[in-house]
Design brief:
heterodimer, A: about 575 residues, mainly alpha, Formate dehydrogenase/DMSO reductase fold, Cytochrome Bc1 Complex, Chain D, domain 2, 29 helices, about 70% helix, B: mainly alpha, 2 domains, globular
Amino acid sequence: MNYPVWFVPTFGGGLLIALVAIIHVFVSHFAVGGGLYLVMVERKAIKEQSQQIMAFVKKHTKFFMLLTMVFGGLTGVAIWFVISLIHPAATSLLIHTFVFGWAAEWVFFLVEIVALFVYFYTFGRMDNRTHQTIGWIYFGAAWMSLFLINGIIDFMLTPGSWTSNSDFWSGFFNPTFWPSLFFRSFMSFMLAGCYGFLTATFLEDETTRHRMIRYSGIWALVSLILSLPAGWWYLSVLPSPAAKLVSGASPTIKRAVMTGGFSLAVLAGVLIALILLNPKARIRCLIVAVMLSAMGYMGAFEWTREAARRPYVINEVMYSNGILKKEVERINQEGFLKNAKWVQHKEVTEANQLEAGRELFLHQCFACHTVGGFNNDIVSRTKTMGFGAMRKYLATIHEKRYFMPPFVGTDSELKALAAYLTAGLHKKPLNDDSGAAGDRGKLLYEENCAACHSADSIKPKMKGWDLVRVRASLDKLPALNPAMPDYTAPPADKDAMAGYLFRLNNSVAAVPAKEQGATLYEENCAACHSMEQIRPKMSGWSRDKIRAALDKLSALNPAMPDYTGTPAEKEAMADYMAKQAGGVK
Amino acid sequence: MNPATLIPIADTLTAPNGWFQFFLMLTFPLHLFAMNAMLGAGLVAFIGHLYPGRAYRELSHELAKALPFLVAFTVNLGVAPLLFVNVIYGHLLYSSTVLMGLYWLAVIPLLIIAYYMAYIYDFSFKKLGNLAMFVLLAVLVLLLTVGFMFSNNMSMMIAPASWSRWFTTPDGSLLNLADSTLLPRYLHIITGSLAVGGLFSALYATTILKSDPEVAEAGRKLGMQLFSWLTLFQLGVGTWFLLSLPQQTLQRFMGGGTTATALLAVGILLAVATLVTGFKRLVLPSLWLTLPLVYVMSFMRDVVRGNFLAPYFNPTTVPVQVQWSPLVFFLVTLVVGIGLVIWMLSRLVKIKKAA
């Protein structure tokens, strides 16, 4: 709200950050571990007086320099550029809080550059001892860079006591600092082994190639084994909401963890195979397997860390959309638009409701949701909800789904956002449809059918039909009459329309409680899964089983919050869902 | 729309503002020196390709070897001042960054390509033959484009009046082209850079390459010619830039402000003096005049920024919550880091001497 938003509707910033960060992570960790690898292999060459190994180190150093200094250095700057573009408020907070940490990191970056240049260009021209010292200086500076960045990155997930005392060191040496430092260090050594393995396979001399493959393989394997307890330690110090997300409450994280686990297993297996069977280790597909699985393991960790702090960009301090947690209450009182800098509508009126809603969307939702794009598309995620349902959903969005930030602003602002998300994005009507599905059904009918036939004209045709038959007919309109197009609306709309059509021939009292169930379903469940998605999962379930399940949703899937409706509401929803599932009694 | 209403609230500083100003003004010229050397070495190497003879060929080759180092140091020495700009003017910089997001992000791939091409130019100089000069030309064009993006962001950041364009064009495709100071500003810094880069090339040739007198002389000649003629040209460009400034800012340099006027006077004096030493091809005297000149220019630039921002933002009003220990930690790191760099370079000099 303090900053403008870079708005490319179909392209989300989150994806861009992930892309740049993932590339940088692989290269920058290699830049650290690789430094140690270089001096250790050089030492081995000196000790064994092996010209071949020394030639290998020199060649590997060139590859290392071109990859880490150019690509690693510039992608590091790129992350800074990207986050200041996507999350300016968070970037500003991190820069201001840790400015001297960043500044010190810059010094180490400078030392790294000088050391690496000197190291590379003086191979064979400097005495061994001095050359090794330069190598150690490089590694020391690179590891110190990791040390510093690690503190700041972990601060974002676990700011610890900084939230109360604003102390630099409290934020820096935060609860996940040490486990993460160990984990990242081992990870960097593991990557160095993997990259070493990659360059070693290109060695012409067979004996040296075998020796270096074995050496690199052991490097990677030992580091990988050591990284496991560090990773475990890391997970064990996560605070409760993050730990809950990681242990299964978030489907995305669950996928990431599974990818990580799978990659880990493949990596370990291939490495062991390579160490044992190194004469055949020149097979290129094994290199690919090693590199991909190493990156999968590392990437899964980073993804989990990023996702675990949701809905915050800085845990418990700033939400993903740049709003400070401590400001929420005040803004709720005073209004978001009034406090926002980059908005044209400072107040919601009837005339500007949709435009104001769009601005609210831009500043509160667009940080994570694209509009019709690949990443977290808001259009597909809101299509099943009507205006009334959306309002209810937004009011408790954070409570219902922890990883979404709360809506921040006044009631009229919330209404404006709901209007944009329904009427703005989907041309849905702006009437308050909660509990009055019949009215909405009428509107839907008018929008979709009345151009060809009035309600009066079809009323006699449906005489004697029960609600189920009316509803089912809406799924297969062309079968009723080949001239009619399919009605492709979401099930909730069809339910509402069916209710309306049924009432044309029946009194309001005859409308069964199932309609209430449909509305309740829409308000409480449809944001995450449409009826189509869960219908197959309930196939064969009795109504009683469905009713019982509504009492313990989180047991079915940790990602689902428990449904807190009244027993009567649960009965209504169970009726509705049983009907949808196939009407088993 | 009142532009002031768009300006974000600045975050609290963790040290008195003067420290950040000090670090900014200390490190920014360092970035300029590296950047100037990079661009100038590139240009001199390129011109070297246009002259016949072994000496010029060799000069280009030697400068090719220096180019990747210069790119690396330009980037590294750019990080520090950009960090301090982030601290003092971050709320303004991020706003203009969002406005030109697409172009700003393009800086990274452009730099990566330029950097790798500089390495190709260096490692494959002989193999490339005549193609080498085109590779180098591409590097130069890419780097000059990156510079143009920076000029845009740095000038848009101090011009909140242009920001409301975001409401109609929020996709990050805005540049600051309508600003009449943009072009002279960009030309001013590029001309200055190439001139100083010429001086660097002359210095490089007469020190590092002195073992080959022919090459050293070719470098000195080309470098100093470039330096002198561009400096002469700069007097014109600089005047254009000065006159393009808003009346109020201009007046400060014309006697309205003591510091601003003094800076301009010293700047012109130094520039004229470098013309004398430059056309006489005196490398070291030119260098001793240029070093302070770059600092003077940086200070003038800061005065301009302060004047542009005066109606909107005063850095001294930002809240400060001081914590000294991180600052001390940085200073200690800086001293240790510089010590290590000096030690490593001394080892390098030692083996050079031994050879």
